[in-house]
């Protein structure tokens, strides 16, 4: 039987529970409030007192609310198609969600169970395998081809004076190589967490409009029809930002 708990204290997203059974460090639980189930992770256990960190807003959560523990830690679901997905930190498929901001208590399954994939097995039932062994041939061929392609791209980026890109993979590769980068933002927004590693605001080029961002990934058509967020950024603005980052060009 799953361990259950009752909320005994709330401070922002830190919640204290009194539990009726065993609980493990880093175990996941769900706290029920106002019809929502809020995911939380155990960060400390002291006897029957359990401290959890809730991954969402705890507004409206009150002492006495009930919680149920899952018996497992935060996990990632692996399977075909995941590399083409847009996930948040809890592996929710953001393309299945509506609006710019996620709704509290809303979770999605990370994979498409109805999709069919071409599978070329490298092993058969009864074979002994080791950790990280390849069991499928098609994916191995794709991975090897992509690795060769990306390695050449990374080598090129690492030797550039500056990179100009959209908020894309190129921006992230350049930031990993510490290459000065100007990223041009239109419908999307860096404030949603898509800047590259160690990326500073001096490399962000964007214009402010009340309609930005129109969606998390900018896939929705412009409601005005003129895509003003991107067309308002002129070539000279990009050149000026490049010069600011790497110095006056000849």
Can you give keywords for this protein?
6-stranded antiparallel beta barrel, 4 helices, 3-stranded parallel sheet, alpha+beta, 250 residues
Description:
The structure is a single chain. By secondary structure, the protein is of the alpha+beta class. It is 18% helix and 22% strand. The chain contains 4 helices and 9 strands, in the order ββββββαβαββαα. The protein has helices spanning 137-158, 169-176, 228-231, 235-246, and strands spanning 4-11, 14-19, 27-33, 36-46, 49-54, 66-73, 163-166, 181-184, 204-205. The strands form 2 sheets. The protein has a 6-stranded antiparallel beta barrel. Strand 4 (36-46) and strand 5 (49-54) form a beta hairpin. The chain is globular and about 65 Å long.
**What value does the average pLDDT take?**
86
The number of helical segments is 4
Q: Could you give the distance between the termini? A: 72 Å
How many E-type strands? 9
Structural class call reads alpha+beta
Strand order of the largest sheet: 1-2-5-4-3-6
Radius of gyration: 23 Å
State the low-pLDDT regions, or none: none
The rough form would be described as: globular
Helix and strand string, N-terminal first?
EEEEEEHEHEEHH
Major sheet details: 6 strands, antiparallel, barrel
User: Into which percent range does the helicity of residues fall?
Assistant: 10-25%
- Give the DSSP E fraction (strand runs of 2 or more residues): 15-25%
């Amino acid at each position: 039987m799953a361990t259950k708990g009752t909320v005994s204290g709330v401070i922002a997203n830190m919640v204290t529970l009194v539990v009726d059974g065993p609980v493990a460090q880093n175990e996941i639980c769900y706290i029920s409030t106002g019809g929502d189930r809020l995911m939380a992770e155990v960060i400390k256990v002291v006897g029957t007192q359990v401290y959890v960190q809730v991954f969402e807003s705890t507004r409206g959560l009150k002492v006495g609310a009930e919680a149920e523990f899952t018996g497992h830690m935060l996990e990632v679901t692996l399977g075909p198609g995941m590399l083409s997905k847009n996930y948040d930190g809890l592996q929710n498929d953001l393309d299945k969600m509506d609006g710019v901001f996620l709704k509290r208590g809303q979770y999605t399954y990370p994979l498409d169970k109805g999709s069919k994939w071409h599978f070329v097995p490298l092993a058969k039932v009864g074979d002994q395998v080791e950790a990280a062994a390849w069991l499928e041939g098609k994916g191995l061929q794709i991975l090897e081809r992509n690795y060769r392609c990306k390695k050449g791209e990374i080598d090129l980026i690492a030797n550039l004076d500056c990179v100009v890109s959209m908020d894309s993979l190129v921006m992230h590769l350049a930031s990993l190589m510490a290459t000065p980068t100007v990223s041009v933002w239109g419908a999307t927004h860096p404030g949603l967490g898509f800047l590259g590693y160690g990326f500073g605001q001096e490399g962000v080029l964007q214009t402010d409009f009340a309609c930005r961002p129109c969606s998390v990934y900018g896939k929705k058509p412009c409601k005005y029809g003129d895509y003003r967020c991107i067309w308002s950024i002129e070539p000279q603005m990009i050149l000026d930002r490049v010069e600011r980052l790497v110095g006056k060009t000849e």
